[in-house]
Amino acid sequence: MILRPATTSDLDRLRHWDSQPHVAGASGSDDAFDWAAELPRRLAWRELLIAETEGRALGVIQIIDPAEEETHYWGEVEAGLRAIDIWIGEAADLGRGYGTEMMRLALARCFADPSVTAVLVDPLARNTRAHRFYERLGFWRVARRRFGADDCFVYRLERPRAPSGA
Ligand SMILES: CC(C)(COP(=O)(O)OP(=O)(O)OC[C@H]1O[C@@H](n2cnc3c(N)ncnc32)[C@H](O)[C@@H]1OP(=O)(O)O)[C@@H](O)C(=O)NCCC(=O)NCCS
Fold first, then answer.
1. Distance CA 90, CA 16 (A)
2. pTM higher than 0.85, yes or no?
3. How far apart are CA 11 and CA 130, in angstroms?
4. Averaged over 22-39, what is the pLDDT?
5. What is the arrangement of strands in the sheet containing 2-5, beginning at the earlier edge strand?
6. Alpha carbon nearest to ligand 1 atom 37, residue
């Protein structure tokens, strides 16, 4: 699997994925992307990535620096954090381990920057399967928080500690 930058050639694919019930059902009311506007933008505080396996696009990861993100969605947050959004496009690709592999690649990418201390995610409070998914990856629930109209849990994963003696 690889993560590659999303480009304008992904426009139709991303719109199609947004229309899938499992994607729409996991999205908050404020989360709709205007893909035609967003895909051409190159921003220092955001990476929009497509996961591909054997050349086939199967999901999306957004990584932001929540302190720098332009709408201040996360409010006042410390520096040195990243926040991740993830979804798999087609229902047939759910529950097959792809999401776990995507998160492992995304987390490695976040922590490759030595200034990053922790990663946040904000699943809807009702998205219990996503909670289990993040908990298995080592995230801890740290808050229940309303983002706009959405009732969410905030999960946090600290930078893995270097093995002792390193
Ligand atoms: C959450 C998600 C990225 C996980 O990827 P995945 O490839 O399905 O997950 P994996 O196969 O690696 O791991 C399996 C676990 O993923 C989660 N999962 C599986 N299907 C899911 C679904 N339809 N919705 C939410 N989580 C799901 C569950 O925790 C599952 O374990 P379980 O069967 O014990 O409940 C993916 O399911 C998805 O895109 N869901 C819809 C969008 C979403 O909820 N995104 C997260 C919003 S914060």
1. 9
2. yes
3. 25
4. 90
5. 2-5, 46-53, 56-64, 81-88, 118-121, 150-158, 140-147
6. 94
Residue located nearest, by CA, to atom 1 of ligand 1: 130
Answer whether residue 165 shows pLDDT above 70.
Answer: no
Ligand 1 centroid – CA 166 distance (Å): 34
Contacts of 79 (CB under 8 A, 6+ apart): 67, 115
Phi, psi of 94 (to 5 degrees): -75, 150
Q: What is the pLDDT of residue 161?
A: 87
Are 59 and 89 in contact, with CB atoms under 8 Å apart? yes
With vertex at residue 146, the alpha carbon angle to CA 73 and CA 27, rounded to the nearest 5 degrees, is: 70
What type of residue is 155?
Answer: Y
Could you read off the pLDDT of 63-81 as tens digits, one per residue?
999 999 999 999 999 999 9
Which DSSP state fits 115? Answer: T
Question: Pocket residues for ligand 1 (CB within 6 Å)?
Answer: 22-23, 26, 86-88, 94-100, 121, 123, 127, 129-130, 132-133
Name the residue with tokens 């054997």.
54
Q: Ligand 1 centre from 19 Cα, in Å?
A: 17
Q: Report pLDDT for 80.
A: 98
